[in-house]
Amino acid sequence: MGNKVKTLMVKSGVIAGETNGKVKASCLDKRDHDKPMVSKLGSSALNDSNDVFKIEKGRAVKAIGSRGASAKILDGGIAESGEGCGSQEAMANYGSSLLYFLAFFCYFLELCSCFYPKHPNLSAIGTHWSTAGATWYGNPDGAGSDGGSCGYGNVVSQQPFSSLVTAIGPSLYKSGKECGACYQVKCTKHPSCSGKAVRVVITDFCPGGACVTDSAHFDLSGTAFGAMALPGQGKKLQDAGVLEVRYARVACDYSGKTLAFHVDQGSNSNYFAMVVEFEEGDGDLAGVDLKEESAAARSGNWRAMTQSWGAVWKLDAGSELHPPFSIRLTSQYSGQTLVAKNVIPQGWKPGASYRSLVNY
After folding, report:
1. Which is it for the CA torsion 67, 72, 78, 82, positive or negative?
2. Is the Cβ–Cβ distance between 87 and 70 less than 8 Å?
3. Which of 85, 117, 268, 329 has the fewest CB atoms within 10 Å of its CB?
4. 208-236: per-residue pLDDT in tens?
5. How many C-beta atoms surround the C-beta of residue 209 within 10 A?
6. CA dihedral sign of residues 168, 174, 175, 180
7. What are the residue boundaries of the Expansin-like EG45 domain, all occurrences included (predicted)?
8. Is 101 contained in some domain?
């Protein structure tokens, strides 16, 4: 009988276990893409993506994926993957003196999610409430300002944002890096408060007044502010002007809507800028990279885009760019990375929006 795995330290969503001389591993994420691999020691295993994994004991081995990605087993029980998911690591400690080594690789058609969490994924942690001030601006049944400083434009009044948006003070706005982040807000201390939480998305910046003096302040759209009220009492709550609310950072959920990339009107063959919309999960972005996928491109390397303002990211290449483009996103909160492959097609147009097949 084989020894059970006692502990497993993971940075890539891999679960491993060993029973009756066989090692089983699964590459998991929240979309439930489960790729089981089972192999006797010293033999090969095949997963659902036709990637070959070799498992041996006592020495380094290499596993080659069907799409050219590779992983190798290092001495000490560390499995490290190469191209495909960057540098992922997992180490297993076994109950006997023998070490069994595992190589793994997760690859999907348009997605490669690699995890270097600075914080746990928002979907996996509980809700932690804090206190903030809240006001509202714009029309009583509107979406705040006309699009806001994040650059989403009239999308803020349409589904899935549906005008449930907020401007935020500098303590949470973080120079626009938090554009797209989602919060729940609720009020309980006014007679018209329902006590029910309303989910809002950061789409704008609040530069003065209580937004600066409060440790945290939400300047909500009229729609979002009224949504905290009891049925039929939205106007009464809005008349209160300033409220104390409870707020909590939560995962964004757009009911399966895929990512959208809206090309800025000023983009051309040498300069590419875009707004990233509808990121689920963390919602915010720490970094965006672009890769030219055309054979005419000088190199197939990722090129870092810079944050122009809000949710607008740009690449001033200084020479002609060759589409199609793949886009790599890195979230601000947990550091999760996602690739939308070939999402910007040949013949792209300024002002057009392009949808990926993937989301966090």
Report:
1. negative
2. no
3. 268
4. 999 999 999 999 999 999 999 999 999 99
5. 13
6. negative
7. 147-257
8. no
Q: Is the pLDDT reported for residue 121 higher than 90?
A: no
Q: Are 37 and 24 in contact (CB under 8 A)?
A: yes
Asked whether residue 157 falls in the same domain as residue 217, the answer is: yes
Q: Which domain holds residue 236?
A: 125-250
Phi-psi region for residue 262, left (φ > 0), alpha (ψ -120 to 50) or beta? Answer: beta
Question: So what's the pLDDT on residue 170?
Answer: 92
Query: Distance between CA atoms of 244 and 132, rounded to whole angstroms?
Result: 6
CA distance 33 to 60: 28
* pTM value > 0.90: no
Residues 264 and 243 in one domain: no
Q: Are residues 300 and 197 in the same domain?
A: no
Helix (H, G, I), strand (E, B) or coil at 123: helix
* Structural domains counted in the chain: 3
pLDDT greater than 70 at residue 352 = yes
Which amino acid, residue 321? Answer: L
pLDDT grade for 122, boundaries at 50, 70 and 90: low
pLDDT tens per residue across span 261-301: 999 999 999 999 999 999 999 999 999 999 999 888 877 89
Helix or strand or coil: residue 122? helix
pLDDT in tens, 125-179: 557 899 999 999 999 999 998 789 999 999 999 999 999 999 999 989 988 989 9
**What CATH number is associated with residue 154?**
2.40.40.10
Residue that terminates a domain, selected from 191, 223, 250:
250
| Domain-terminating residue out of 193, 224, 250 | 250
Q: C-alpha distances in angstroms, 351 versus 260, 329, 355?
A: 12, 21, 13
User: CA-CA distance, 216 to 171, in Å (whole number)?
Assistant: 6
**Is the per-residue pLDDT at 81 higher than 50?**
no
- List, in order, residues 6 or more apart from 222 with CB less than 8 Å away: 136, 137, 138, 139, 140, 141, 142, 144, 238
Give tens-digit pLDDT for 92-112.
Answer: 222 322 223 323 333 333 333
Segment holding 236, helix H or strand E: helix 234-239
How far apart CA 325 and CA 323 sit, in angstroms, is 5
E runs forming strands in 278-350: 287-292, 303-304, 306-309, 312-316, 325-330, 337-344
* 315 bridge partner residues: 272
